[in-house]
Write a structure and sequence with these properties.
Length: about 100
Amino acid sequence: MMRPQSNAGSAVSLPRQRVLLILMAPGFDYAGNGRADLPVWAAARRCAGVNVSGPVRAELLRLDSKATFIGRQGKRSRARAKLLRVRQWAKNALVFVPLLTA
């Protein structure tokens, strides 16, 4: 769903957006990405958080225990460790250590 736009083409403020969504689309689904979206999520039927921080994620889960989350799941350090491909290093060591010690 696109955000409601004013006649001038600028984005509608979140408090006004919440009222417009309730009036224009009762039972709407809403995807947001920050603390400012909490009032709109509170009025939504289904909620989705996109790249939300940990505290916002916790608040959204208090509002909707079935909220959907996209991005920022898990720790970044784990992803970085995966990029290092440590398993490949171990396999290479099995090949090259005997060659170097022979």
